[in-house]
Design brief:
CATH architecture: 3-Layer(aba) Sandwich
CATH superfamily: Vaccinia Virus protein VP39
Radius of gyration: 16 Å
Shape: globular
Largest sheet: 7 strands, mixed
Number of helices: 6
Number of domains: 1
Distance between the termini: 35 Å
Order of helices and strands: HHEHEHEEHEEEHEE
Structural class: alpha/beta
Helix content: 25-40%
Oligomer: single chain
CATH topology: Rossmann fold
CATH class: Alpha Beta
């Protein structure tokens, strides 16, 4: 299983340039801002609690969640990304970790956000990731997952300023991701398709752990 090592090394390499390109965060992305606000609203309405931004990258979405009144912290596979996130968002908690084996107690979270962080995880590993999300969530906990829509995968060999990378980027149909979530015990609450007229649309799935 080389994909975790390849992903970690690739994002360590591009961490600074990636953060530079995303410095404006969600400005100019009203539908994503709205989705994040909905996620924050339901977490607060459920009584609040810790929320993990899994695959947080340079931490801008984690910081946005905190600005929305959520007790959010970030987890990323790349130490380079975590270093950048800590530098750019002092006072926010960021940890190095893997979504396949989160260093968190059972039933300890109110929510998990995973925006475009599953795109490098092979299909056969995704059900285990969702099982891990279920393990760390308390009953009634919320999940929001964002991903590229389509079929198949491609090898990405450079990015974010031409830096070398070696990661597979997977595209998936929303119904397939929804079935994986259901198999892990989640109930799907909503689905949003983003930029359907573009070559590679995006999708967001909103799910809840019953209880």
């Amino acid at each position: 299983m080389t994909w975790p090592t390849d992903t970690r090394t690739s994002y360590d390499t591009v961490a600074s340039s990636y953060a530079d390109q995303l410095r404006d965060g969600l400005s100019g992305l009203p539908h994503l801002r709205a989705a994040l606000a909905v996620f924050a609203d339901v977490v607060r309405a459920d009584g609040g609690g810790p929320v993990a931004d899994v695959g947080c990258g340079p931490g801008h979405v984690t910081a946005d969640l905190r600005a929305l009144g959520v007790d959010a912290f970030g987890v990323d596979l790349s130490p380079g990304m975590v270093e950048v996130a800590r530098r750019e968002h002092p006072g926010v908690r960021f940890e190095v970790g893997s979504m396949t084996d989160l260093d968190l107690p059972d039933a300890s979270l109110a929510g998990v956000l995973a925006w475009w962080s599953l795109i490098h995880v092979p299909d056969e590993e995704v059900p285990g990731v969702f099982d891990e999300f279920r393990r760390v969530l308390r009953p009634g906990g919320r999940v929001q997952v964002g991903f590229h829509v389509g079929d198949g995968s491609r090898l990405k060999t450079e990015g974010y300023g031409g830096h070398p990378m070696r990661v597979r980027v997977h595209r998936r149909r929303p119904e397939r991701v929804a079935d994986w979530l259901r198999a892990a015990g989640f109930a799907i609450e909503a689905q949003t398709l983003l930029n359907p007229d573009e070559e590679v649309p995006g999708a967001l799935l909103f799910a809840r752990l019953p209880g």
